[in-house]
Amino acid sequence: MKAISKHWARIAVTLLPLFLALLHAVGMLPIGVIGQLDNAIYDARLRATSPKTLDKRIVIVDIDEKSLAAVGHWPWGRHRLAELVNQLFEQHHIALLGFDVVFAEEDDSSGLKTLKALADHELKASPEFARALEKIEPTLDFDAAFAKALASRPIVLGYYLNQGKASGVLPAPALPLEALQGRKLPSTQWRGYGSNIAALAAAAPRAGHFNTLPDADGLVRSLPMLAEVQGQNYESLSLAMFRYLAGSPDLRPGFTSDRFFSRTYQTVDRLLLQVGEKSLAVPVDERLSSLVPYRGPGGPTGNSFQYVSAVDVLENRVPADTLRDKIVLLGTTAPGLLDLRATPVGEAYPGVEVHANAISGFLDGKILVKPDYALGYEVVVLLLSGLILAFGLPLLAAPMAVGLSVAVLAGLTALNFWLYTQFGLVLPLASSLCMAFTAFALNMSYGYFVESRAKRDLANLFGTYVPPELVDEMLKEPESYSMQATNRELTVMFCDMRGFTKMSESMPPTELQALLTGVFGKLTDIIRSNLGTIDKYMGDCVMAFWGAPVESSQHAQLAVKAALEMAQAVHTINAEHRARGLPEIGIGIGLNTGVMCVGDMGSHIRKSYTVIGDAVNLASRLEGLSKVYATDIVASESTRKQAGAMLWQELDKVRVKGKDQAVAIFRPMQGTIEGSFTTQDALKLWGQFLKAYRAQQWDQADVALLNLQRQDATNALYRLYVERVATLRLLPFDPHWDGATNFETK
């Protein structure tokens, strides 16, 4: 929860695409590009998974350009169509014939109508003309000849629906009103129609409309299975032909139950055909349309269905077995007859083949389904994937965030494709993909433009103070660091270069600069390698501290370690200086641990990340005492206690200027607390000396000092205390003396 709370702004930004996608899914904020992308995904998936094989059950008799050239322009005389029908049934024994054309007007091409007008008017007085007309009338009534060819045969006529006038005769409604159980279907509504003339409709009562419903982009992806005209529901050509093949069972609606997240509470998601004890279902969407399962490219060369030229049938040039027991659709591919459609598998797709694909899908039981619960699926998938990304991406580095996003995108695509291929479910995918990609893009953009800028600002702010290791640590949680002043227990160091004033008087400025830069460069590297924060350079002094801005429980230990390494580095530097003829240097280091105020103590013009407080002042005083006690390092008792298992020598108790309380001061020894036998012996003897010294037992103190000097005659600390004992011996015994040395100067 802590990690999440730190990234609440980034999480909120990543949740924005999820919110917009949900509004799109429920229809409150339709986003056109998502719908277009869903269509593009559907089309690509349809093309990729279509079988691209020949369905031998269905044959298309094509009124092609070859037939038009041989027989004449369309419409043909009904007597030629009667010949065509007779040929198909009598010579080729087809199973079913469907017409993707309509015969909305009577055929006057024989001249019979003109002859009858003459018999009724100009030649009314001629009985010979009347007898001759009566004799030849059956041969000139092309509609009657065509109706005779249609009668009592498995034929389904076609017609179209429109929003204009009504003409012709409609077939019986496919779905009686009583089957609706008092409910209204959400089918497309039409005011008019263009159907077949009465004589043909009576001869072939089965008929279906061949209307298509192009989507917003103009592509035909589905066919309306039922359409409403004047309050009645009529079936499509493909459904009417399939119903005949199934034995002409009654059609009834399959109502959905009240599903949660259903787009409508009382609608139809399937049309049911009861064939014996088996119920066949034709899936439909909210418009009572079925998706067309295109088999592949269309036309005579598409290899989805076999095409036979109509003129070849008329002239008996088609092999007998080509059409035997086949389902035949009569339509046209001639461009001039304008029955070409834009579909996902072709921009000039024969309209007749659209219906052939639908029939093929019905026969195979492979009609794709847009289930009524698609909204629920979309919402659940959006929520799951969106929340995973929203709460996962802000916590991950860029490579891991890319991996998570790719995994989510791949998972969404794989799940959707699996449901499509295994169950024929067409479910929304574009909203999830757009949401996931946008969430990733916004998350990365926020990270780059907001958090990265904050990190760059942090690095610029602290980069000159703290070592790269600490900057890297700070960049993991930049919001946790600022220059806001706060009280914190830290360890502070003052390091002064001794003899600098004398050197500055005797050396040229350029040489002095080079020497100072070289020394401070090495000392600074040691401080930073021990995770210290450089506070400032003050002439010949450098100030540093440990434990801020990055907290560390080892701040005292790291400071002491750095001080020891700095003292050792000075010996190496002096060896180099001697070899080059340069003056040797010395340093004095003061260390103190305590609560101090750390933060920006600068101005609006220049920032200064520093520490202030009594604990800081004490460290500065201790640095000054290093020369008095002839040692490189002087540390307070608080530093010694927190530095861990190290070897220490207590130097004194001191009362610095401005302080009433005396503090013990120490110097760290190289090595662990065990030390060598000689060092341990010397420290034990030194402890005896301090005990005698503070008890004002001067004789015992002198004896201890004498023994110490025998071991180390050049030790300046011993000489210091020899002089002090000699001076204090002359003073009267002071019962109130606490053994501390008072320093009145800084």
TrEMBL record:
<dbReference type="InterPro" id="IPR001054">
    <property type="entry name" value="A/G_cyclase"/>
</dbReference>
<keyword id="KW-1133">Transmembrane helix</keyword>
<dbReference type="Pfam" id="PF05226">
    <property type="entry name" value="CHASE2"/>
</dbReference>
<feature type="domain" description="Guanylate cyclase">
    <location>
        <begin position="491"/>
        <end position="623"/>
    </location>
</feature>
<dbReference type="GO" id="GO:0004016">
    <property type="term" value="F:adenylate cyclase activity"/>
</dbReference>
<dbReference type="GO" id="GO:0006171">
    <property type="term" value="P:cAMP biosynthetic process"/>
</dbReference>
<keyword id="KW-0812">Transmembrane</keyword>
<dbReference type="Pfam" id="PF00211">
    <property type="entry name" value="Guanylate_cyc"/>
</dbReference>
<dbReference type="InterPro" id="IPR007890">
    <property type="entry name" value="CHASE2"/>
</dbReference>
<feature type="transmembrane region" description="Helical">
    <location>
        <begin position="374"/>
        <end position="393"/>
    </location>
</feature>
<keyword id="KW-0472">Membrane</keyword>
<dbReference type="GO" id="GO:0035556">
    <property type="term" value="P:intracellular signal transduction"/>
</dbReference>
<feature type="transmembrane region" description="Helical">
    <location>
        <begin position="425"/>
        <end position="449"/>
    </location>
</feature>
<protein>
    <submittedName>
        <fullName>Adenylate/guanylate cyclase domain-containing protein</fullName>
    </submittedName>
</protein>
<dbReference type="InterPro" id="IPR029787">
    <property type="entry name" value="Nucleotide_cyclase"/>
</dbReference>
<feature type="transmembrane region" description="Helical">
    <location>
        <begin position="400"/>
        <end position="419"/>
    </location>
</feature>
<dbReference type="InterPro" id="IPR050697">
    <property type="entry name" value="Adenylyl/Guanylyl_Cyclase_3/4"/>
</dbReference>
